[in-house]
Structures are given as structure tokens and as C-alpha cells.
Design a protein that fits this description.
The complex is a heterodimer. By secondary structure, chain A is an alpha+beta fold. Chain A has a single domain, classed as Glutaredoxin. Chain A contains four helices and four strands, in the order αβααβββα. A four-stranded mixed sheet of chain A has the order 2-1-3-4. In chain A, helix 3 packs parallel to helix 4. Chain A is globular, with a radius of gyration of 16 Å. Chain B is globular and about 45 Å long. Chain B has six helices and six strands. Chain B has a six-stranded mixed sheet. Chain B starts with a helix and ends in a 5-residue tail after the last helix. By secondary structure, chain B is an alpha+beta fold. The chains are: A alpha+beta, B alpha+beta. At the A-B interface, helix 1, helix 2 and helix 3 of A face helix 1, helix 4, helix 5 and helix 6 of B.
Chain lengths: 122, 182
């Protein structure tokens, strides 16, 4: 059985980190989670970003957030990546597998995965 | 929607958009296999006018654009199994909020499986870690329950949205879904 005692242990471990992360993220990954996004598969895409960012130890630099309809429903699941001092990148028709590559090549390596961008999918 | 859990995620997001601080999601399956899904919130509620509109996808205008296809899709999923959908909402300052209730015959050939409801719940909590969620899934053979207010008491100033906390919530729920070992 998993109990609240384990949650208390997590709290004790996290306590010192509270507040440190606030506002320090340089990169924002925004996943469209309206009806259109959800129906097209945004839930596993979001989870893949959350998992990937934490697995690669990027959680201090990258925040993953949810938003409503971005307005290009036919391209869902759509993800926008905002980076300080750079132009926004819009990825379209994503899957969890594609996200793995984006985490490694874009978020970790700094190189946009052109073939998944809206520019390559028009 | 491929899974009912995706409709749940979608409809519950309307509750957060309505400014709810507490969202209750309950799944109750009786011995005849009738599933009742209830999503109740204490958000701003909807006027009579809006309430009439939300079930009709073609009646949606730009001003009510946030409502969109969510309710019609849930209604379709429910009615395809011979079930029903009902909406109760109040904008009364003393008692505002919305309750969406849908029933499904889980034995009907057109019943869409509930699917990964744990994933939907973790997505909801991760997206709005400052709101409270009460979740229950009960049937003659199982009883799953989560109240984020209880977790908050343990967590203190640590956010529900922390990766480690969300991972714990996922494990805690999945553990409850596991059949009791003898």
C-alpha cells in the first residue's frame, strides 16, 4: 500500500527547493489542452514533455504549462516553445514519440526539429 | 474522444476556466453496469441562456466560444449507450457552480471505455495545482478515492504541481485500482 507517509517524505525532501525555482525558468513549453487538443492526443504529449524534462534534469530551466485552444485545431496536438531572446517555435501534430526527439534535440541540444514545426507541415 | 477519461479531462477544464476552487469528479458504477459520471464545481456558473446553448454545437457564438464542443461530445458518448446528460448550474452569489451528470450503459456495444482516468486526473492537478480536486471511482468491486485537500495538509507549502508529488498521486491512485492481493 502506498501511504501518506511517503508523501510526507517527498515534502521533506522538497522543502528546501521551494521558491528557488520561481521565475528562474528560461524556456516555456506550452501545450494546447482544449477539446480539440485533447481529442487529438494532447494528454500523452503533455505527459511526455513533463517526463522528458524531468528525466533530462531540465526542470530548473524549462517549465511545461497547459493552455486553451491556440486556434489551429487541424494541427493539434500543438505545442509552442518560448525561449528568452528567441522566436517562438510552433510544433504541430505531435505524438509522445516526437516529443522525445524534441526534448533531446531542441530543449537539451538547442536545435529546432524542423520537420515537426508548422512551417514544414503546411 | 477515444476514451471517456478524455471527456472528463475536457469538461473538468471548463470548471477551472469558470474559476472553481473545488472540482469534484465521481464515477459510480452500479451492479447493473450503469455508470454515472458527475463533475461538480463551485465556479461562476452559467446563466439560463448559456446553459441552453452549451449542448448545441451549432448554437455556439464567438462570445461563448470557450464552451464549444465539449458538452456535445460528452452528450453523444452518453446517449450512444442509451444514457443521458444533464446540466445544473447556478450563478447565485451564495451558491454558484455547475454540475454535469452523464449516465452510461457500460454493457452497450457503443460504450466508450473509461480508459486512463488516472492520467487525466494527474494532468488536471498538474495544470491547476492551486485548485482542489476530489475524485472517486466506485463500483461493487472497487473503491478509489483522492482528495487533494488532505494531501495539501501533508504537503504544507510544497505545491501539488511538483513532479515528485504528481508521480506520488499517480502511484497512489494506481495502487487503489490494483485488485487486493490475498
Amino acid at each position: 500500500m502506498i501511504s501518506l507517509a511517503e508523501l510526507a517524505a517527498i515534502r521533506d525532501k522538497m522543502k528546501d527547493k521551494v521558491g528557488v525555482r520561481e521565475g528562474s525558468a528560461e524556456t516555456r513549453v506550452v501545450v494546447g489542452m482544449a477539446t480539440c487538443g485533447i481529442a487529438a492526443g494532447a494528454r500523452p504529449v503533455l505527459n511526455a514533455f513533463v517526463e522528458g524534462v524531468n528525466k533530462e534534469g531540465l526542470s530548473d530551466k524549462v517549465t511545461v504549462t497547459q493552455t486553451g485552444c491556440i486556434g489551429i485545431c487541424q494541427y493539434e496536438p500543438v505545442v509552442e516553445i518560448f525561449e528568452d531572446g528567441k522566436e517562438k517555435t510552433t510544433y504541430v501534430k505531435l505524438t509522445a514519440e516526437k516529443v522525445e526527439r524534441i526534448v533531446k534535440e531542441h530543449l537539451l541540444g538547442g536545435k529546432i526539429v524542423e520537420e515537426y514545426t508548422i512551417g514544414a507541415n503546411r | 474522444m477515444k476514451e471517456l477519461s478524455l471527456n472528463i479531462l475536457d469538461i473538468a477544464k471548463n470548471s477551472t476556466a469558470a474559476g472553481a476552487s473545488l472540482i469534484e469528479i465521481s464515477l459510480l458504477t452500479d451492479e447493473r453496469g450503469i455508470l454515472t459520471l458527475t463533475i461538480r464545481d463551485n465556479g461562476c456558473g452559467m446563466s439560463e441562456e448559456t446553459l441552453k446553448r452549451v449542448s448545441d454545437p451549432f448554437y455556439t457564438t464567438r462570445t461563448t466560444r470557450k464552451v464549444g464542443m465539449g458538452i456535445p461530445l460528452l452528450r453523444l458518448a452518453a446517449e450512444s449507450t442509451g444514457g443521458t446528460l444533464s446540466l445544473v448550474s447556478s450563478t447565485d452569489p451564495a451558491n454558484h457552480g455547475t454540475t454535469v451528470t452523464a449516465t452510461f450503459d457500460t454493457g452497450h456495444i457503443d460504450f466508450v471505455p473509461v480508459g486512463d482516468v488516472v492520467s487525466s486526473l494527474v494532468t488536471l492537478i498538474g495544470g491547476d495545482p492551486d485548485r482542489d480536486f476530489v475524485f472517486s471511482d466506485r463500483s461493487p468491486s472497487r473503491s478509489v478515492f483522492l482528495d487533494t485537500r488532505e494531501l495539501r495538509e501533508v504537503l504544507g507549502e510544497v505545491s501539488l504541481g511538483e513532479y515528485e508529488v504528481l508521480a506520488w498521486i499517480k502511484a497512489y491512485l494506481l495502487d487503489q485500482y490494483r485488485p487486493a492481493s490475498t
